[in-house]
Amino acid sequence: MDSWTAPHVPSLPGHGPTLRLHDTASAGLRETVEPGGERATMYVCGITPYDATHLGHAATMITFDLVHRYWLDQGLDVHYVQNVTDVDEPLFERAERDGTDWQVLGLRETALYREDMEALQVLPPRDFVGAVESIPSVGKAVAELLDKGAAYRHDSGDVYYSVQSHPGFGSESNYDRETMLRYARERGGDPDREGKRDALDPILWNAPKDGEPSWDSAAGPGRPGWHIECACIALDHLGPQIHVQGGGNDLIYPHHEMSAAHAESLSGASPFARAYVHTGMIGLDGEKMSKSLGNLVFVSKLRAEGTDPAAVRLALLAQHYREDRQWSAAALAEAELRLGRWREAVGRELAVPAGAMLTAVRERLADDLDTAGALRAVDEWAAETLAAGGEDPSAPSLARDTIGGILGIDCTR
Ligand code: 5CA
Ligand code: ZN
Hints:
It contains 13 helices and 14 strands.
């Protein structure tokens, strides 16, 4: 499907160190690309478009936008793919509640998401891929897994993946069985269903049901399961092994465990991702921000109220991406003040030299996206410029390009 328009990304002098990110599978920092590698690939789990983009989605997309921007700044050829889960139960339920069509709902919310991403200066993925357009590929993959004995048909006609067929199963989350069972129950799995080989087996293909859409495929009629959607889109667009698999930490299990297992069973190559990177949950009043809890702050609502999207982005960058963190009006107000100081300093004709700030921003981000440290480096440059004036006529534009190019914060407005 169509992506969105890319903002201008200025090129900067020199390069920073190799980006290292925390990898869930090895529970430690990993260099995201091989030494001397020229290409970098990333798959990020995108929205299920039954409601507007909230600040949790925005925070996750901005985090991976920093990865994208940092890799581009390294001179790498970046291939970034993101999906849209445009066919799934939440869409049917919401469409039914609102008396609308699930396809119309999905198109409308996806269009709003594109606008929000553009406003937040998020670079578009090279491939923005819907689940519906991937159905032929998913059907073939399910048929192949059945052939290989990695999948089986349940009495109901649904097709399940056999976790026991894959020796690598469990190596992404490293959770024990009890934890896996708990998350399967909480996050859309059906561990208590009769007739499965293993309670943890996830659905690959849903047999046709009344009131639900269905497509013909190599696996018979029906519609795709969730995890196989992401496995197929990543395999089709990026190949069997990628550098970064990204998403919120609510996807560590079962979603990323299962999509990695599906991809590895299909391709024979492992690990599926060099680094499994997970963002913390954005909450409001101590609860995770989620559609089901209804405690959402929408990006589009903030925009409509006249909030500067650059301040929203800056507020979300103030704390580390892996922390579960809280959105607040105070955090937004602080970001607005900070943005004002940065813009004032960048707007000067003369400033203190900005080369050391560029180096510090790169070094801080390369260290598992230490955004708080990177923002401090910009704060120091801005404070010195505002206090002392400075004498360097090229510093304001270097600062503007550093802040705009690497952090995605537009200081020209
Ligand atoms: N379509 C699936 C992924 S294939 C999905 O999880 N959709 S979603 O709309 O629920 O979430 C979209 C992305 O935002 C996912 O990466 C998810 O992990 C992340 N996300 C959802 N809620 C939050 C939150 N409160 N804070 C941070 N990230 C979140
Ligand atoms: Zn996904």
